[in-house]
């Protein structure tokens, strides 16, 4: 049977396509993961800022009442 380079190329291209798709999927989930982490961090920061604001408000109002 003669050597068929086109078959080899096709197999190689298929393999590359599969591995590229896998890389893309991994990259996609990585991006989603990072976005979720960023959103969570942002929410925590907002919560902390809100708590600080409340504490300062309480301090101010308690110093006025005494």
TrEMBL record:
Protein's recorded name: BA13 protein
Organism domain of life: Eukaryota
Spans annotated as Disordered: 45-66
Biased composition (Basic and acidic residues): 45-58
């Amino acid at each position: 049977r003669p050597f068929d380079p086109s078959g080899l190329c096709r197999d190689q291209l298929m393999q590359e396509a599969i591995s590229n798709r896998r890389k893309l999927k991994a990259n996609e989930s990585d991006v989603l993961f990072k976005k979720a982490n960023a959103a969570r961090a942002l929410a925590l920061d907002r919560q902390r800022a809100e708590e600080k604001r409340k504490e300062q408000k309480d301090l101010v109002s308690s110093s006025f009442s005494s």
